[in-house]
Structure to design on (647 residues):
């Protein structure tokens, strides 16, 4: 079984201070980490590897420094790592990232599962998993808390459902996004940390290796400005019998000319 | 000259820091109070390779050299003096004696399980009448067929109770003195005639046991001699040299935490309407701590570099132990002062740090012994041999 885990390297939020009044973010310590939610996906893949055997492949798109995220993935237990880096990827938006990762996954090939985080802690978009599944034409299960069974061409997973869980099945290959609190990612053992940098290789692919045309690298979105969200005001809690509460709510909204 | 740590060491530091913060720190107070480290915690550390950091991977180690070992000791001693001391005695002196001079068979039989943390090690030199003056040891080892028969006792042995295997020094030929007459052995605690005696009740590092070892006609196979017969004193001195470096690294970690805690406290504690960070008396203490810590960091990692690149390091290692323990003493004392009443309370970790720190100026050679080592080395270069 081959499991591919797309990961993202992000700026460590622990090293930044947000100053709301000045509308500025101060970087005190520029350190990069694996997006914590992607580590949950990696942990789920490694757990499957421990339990039933699997080849775990980590892949990331990013600048050269993203190599560190892959070395850490190798140290945690991944078997292979691919860095997708190219000057042409620098302005990538989520649609371009999907194309680049999708092409790389197709080139790696022969996979049974793709596991990734639900969202990145920096942009918080939460789009990559679903987009990638669409790009590759795969069934997808989102917000997975535990992969239960993989075998006989099918995967069964427990995912969030309203206020509880649902068990969902899909045919393989499939893409699953793993929830942030699904598991406790392991620490990379020291000897594997040493080997990840001294012994093992990270394969580097650029646009030409993936056969991506310039036209496919045109972002669909453009970043105009970054601004702070307005501070949220406290909500109002309406309690009581449903009919009474609805009447109160309607009244509340009317007074504020919402309806 | 490049002072940045290679990437693997940066990731190692982050891993150990997260492990220390998440797994060890929440237990630190309980470890002190119960005078015991949960075995589960040691096993967790072992799975990450923390019980074999400097040793090559072919012996089950992490393969991270002295630099890696210093990083691990620095980060662990930030959160738990007891755990750092247990690992220091296990790796830094217990297993290192076997690694430096043990035969290939001894390394396979003992170093590999020690490095993996399947066995815990200890180092037994001190006796009621002998410590740093190793030439005065009385424990006797007499040859009997293929065995040695050992009689005597060792005191103040870190991991004496916890360990499975002990590297121990005994006199094989009283007529030859320290050089030629003293031999190092690996002793399994299950060997007949081996027992543990009194466990000490200490001021600090209470989670690590300090115990008496008793040898009564203890039979040890001759294959368990570390290095050559009669050369044990040299093995032990070389081992202690390395141990001193890692102790300096451990002191660095605790001193750094004392500084960080003091800075944080100085920002939140108000006096006469302002945080005490605005008082020059506090600023000067903080500045002195930071300066000494920076000097210690340079000394420790330069010395680790000397070891890892195969250069002489004895003098510098003694300096790491001497300066490290004294910097820690001053930093933790200032931290108590800056914290005021809070620094004296058992609810707060500064009090534990203060008690744990004091031993570093005493064990594995007091500050006075380190000064003798440093001065002897300086005078030796001038052709003057000084005897302690």
């Amino acid at each position: 079984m081959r499991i591919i885990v797309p990961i993202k390297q992000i700026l460590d939020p622990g090293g930044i201070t947000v100053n709301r009044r000045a509308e500025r973010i101060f970087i005190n310590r520029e350190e990069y980490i694996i997006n914590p939610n992607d580590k949950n996906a990696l942990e789920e893949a490694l757990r499957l590897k421990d339990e039933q055997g699997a080849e775990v492949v980590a892949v990331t798109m990013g600048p050269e420094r993203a190599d560190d995220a892959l070395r850490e993935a190798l140290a945690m237990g991944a078997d292979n790592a691919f860095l997708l880096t190219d000057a042409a990827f620098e302005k990538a938006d989520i649609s371009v990232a999907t194309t680049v990762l999708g092409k790389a996954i197709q080139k790696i090939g022969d996979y049974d599962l793709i596991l990734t985080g639900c969202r990145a802690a920096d942009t918080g978009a939460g789009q990559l998993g679903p987009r990638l599944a669409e790009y590759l034409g795969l069934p997808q299960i989102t917000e997975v808390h535990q992969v239960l069974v993989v075998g006989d061409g099918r995967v069964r997973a427990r995912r969030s459902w309203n206020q509880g869980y649902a068990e969902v099945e899909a045919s393989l290959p499939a893409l699953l996004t793993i929830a942030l609190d699904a598991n406790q990612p392991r620490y990379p053992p020291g000897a594997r940390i040493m080997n990840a940098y001294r012994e093992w290789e990270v394969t580097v692919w650029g646009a030409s290796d993936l056969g991506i045309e310039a036209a496919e690298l045109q972002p669909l979105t453009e970043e105009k400005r970054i601004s702070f969200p307005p501070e949220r005001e406290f909500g109002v809690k309406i309690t009581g019998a449903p009919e009474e509460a609805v009447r109160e709510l309607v009244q509340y909204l009317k007074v504020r000319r919402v309806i | 000259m490049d002072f940045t740590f290679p990437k693997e060491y940066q990731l190692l530091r982050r891993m150990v820091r997260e492990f220390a913060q998440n797994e060890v720190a929440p237990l630190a107070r309980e470890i002190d109070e119960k005078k015991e480290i949960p075995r589960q915690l040691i096993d967790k550390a072992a799975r990450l390779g923390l019980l074999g950091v400097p040793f090559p991977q072919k012996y089950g180690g992490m393969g991270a050299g002295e630099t890696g070992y210093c990083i691990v000791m620095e980060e662990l001693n930030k959160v738990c003096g007891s755990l750092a001391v247990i690992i220091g005695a296990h790796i830094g002196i217990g297993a290192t004696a076997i690694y430096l001079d043990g035969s290939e068979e001894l390394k396979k039989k003992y170093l590999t399980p020690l490095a993996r943390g399947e066995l815990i090690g200890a180092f037994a030199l001190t006796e009621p009448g002998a410590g740093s003056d190793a030439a005065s040891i009385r424990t006797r080892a007499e040859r009997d067929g293929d065995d040695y028969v050992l009689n005597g006792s060792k005191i103040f042995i870190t991991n004496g109770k916890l360990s499975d295997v002990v590297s121990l020094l005994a006199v094989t030929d009283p007529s030859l003195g320290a050089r030629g007459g003293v031999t190092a052995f690996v002793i399994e605690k299950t060997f007949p005639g081996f027992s543990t005696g009194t466990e000490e009740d200490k001021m600090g590092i209470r989670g690590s046991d300090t115990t008496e070892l008793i040898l009564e006609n203890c039979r040890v196979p001759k294959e368990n001699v570390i290095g050559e017969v009669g050369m044990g004193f040299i093995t032990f001195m070389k081992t202690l040299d390395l141990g001193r470096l890692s102790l300096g690294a451990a002191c660095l970690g605790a001193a750094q935490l004392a500084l960080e805690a003091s800075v944080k406290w100085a920002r939140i504690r108000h006096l006469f309407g302002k945080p005490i960070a605005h008082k020059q008396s506090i600023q000067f203490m903080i500045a002195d701590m930071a300066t000494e810590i920076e000097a210690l960091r340079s000394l420790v990692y330069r010395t680790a570099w000397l070891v890892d690149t195969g250069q002489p390091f004895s003098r510098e290692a003694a300096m790491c132990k001497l300066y490290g323990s004294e910097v820690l003493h001053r930093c933790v004392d200032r931290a108590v002062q800056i914290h005021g009443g809070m620094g004296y309370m058992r609810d707060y970790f500064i009090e534990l740090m203060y008690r744990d720190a004091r031993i570093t100026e005493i064990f594995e050679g007091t500050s006075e012994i380190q000064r003798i080592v440093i001065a002897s080395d300086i005078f030796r270069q001038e052709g003057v041999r000084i005897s302690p």
